[in-house]
Amino acid sequence: MPKQRRTAKRNPVNFKHESVFEGRVRDLTSDGRGVVSHPDGRTFFVPGIWLNEVAEIRVVGRQGKVGLGQVVTLKQADPQRRLASCSHHGYDTDHCGGCPWMFMSYEAQSSAKLRRLDSALAGLGSHLVQADELLAAPEELGYRNRAQLKTDGARLGYLAAGTRTLVDIAACPILSVRNAEMLTALRAELPNSAWRVRGQQWQTIDIDDSLNTPSMRKRLSFRQGNSRQNTVMRDWLARVIAPIPEDASVLELFAGSGNFTEILAAHFRTVVAVEGDDKALRHLSEIAPDRIQAHALNLFSEPAVERWISQISDARVLVLDPPREGLKVRAPFLRAMTELETVIYVACDIATWARDCRDFMAEGFSLARVTPLDMFPQTPHLEVLSVLSRG
Ligand SMILES: C[S@@+](CC[C@H](N)C(=O)[O-])C[C@H]1O[C@@H](n2cnc3c(N)ncnc32)[C@H](O)[C@@H]1O
User: Fold this and answer.
1) β-strands 342-347, 317-320: how paired?
2) Which tens digits make up the pLDDT trace of 376-388?
3) Does domain 116-136+226-390 have CATH number 3.40.50.150?
4) Is 0.90 topped by the overall pTM?
């Protein structure tokens, strides 16, 4: 009884399942859902609906203070809405939520991505820099060079968005040709009792079009998920570093297997490259051993960064490509790197990128260049390639 009372106090707002209301989408969340106000003022997140569209929405749950809704009837559709080109597309537990924006034209998706970036730039007070044109993806489909499949021995596919429910996937149009063939070949082995793992709902199978066989139970090191757009990013980086003297000392954080380190080492005489994944580090060390000093470090551990930072405090160029968390531990870098002139920041998360830029700007840096790149069409993801300069 006391427990019930505590719960009621924490969750004072009533989210009555199955009630329906009409609302207009006023914004889109970072994971692509529509933001809709209930007539009584509560905010709801609703998948499969676009900015300014109006729909009848069923209340299906809550996420903290926000309600979760499902479209019942679309009352006013955006003219750029289209039929998704995948039979598995959808938002319930029978569908794959991997391409949440597939129901909109590529132009509409691109505009929404740029709108988020513009709003982040406005938040930074960065009216002096305007983002470059979007480096749009040359392929809307068939671009994905790797994927993580799940199997329980009877089904093979992906998890439904936000759940642990396995959805059987017959074909996936965003996979590269080689990966689509691998999916078909794996499916031909179903049912497969050897893929069942005792005590687990399913197990993971990684497919990657640079590997001959799927990888089971072994995590692969990071690889940029769209090969053609990765080439565009590497070319962008080569252009950006070209005017910097080749004897400048360079520090690269989150270097992975050396995708960008290779470009840096082709220009700069010495590059100190830091990475946390041992397997990636081994690969990184082999690229150009005479120019690259590869270093293992957990960049999210403040004590570890503090202990190491004095070794690189003379760096003039910092290149970083962090995971979604961004440069979580940044105070030691901001404090110790007094010689730093240029920061080249490749970001996969606009919010953490903006947070980190704000801190660099407080140290006298300003945004010199911002180039958006579309790595994953059909999703809200946007890669931001940026340069900050001091002085
Ligand atoms: C977005 S990837 C970039 C990799 C590389 N720049 C590339 O283009 O392939 C981020 C990298 O950060 C590494 N990483 C993630 N968390 C880390 C941490 N706490 N410390 C060090 N490295 C980390 C990952 O292993 C991954 O290689």
Assistant:
1) parallel
2) 999 999 999 999 9
3) yes
4) yes
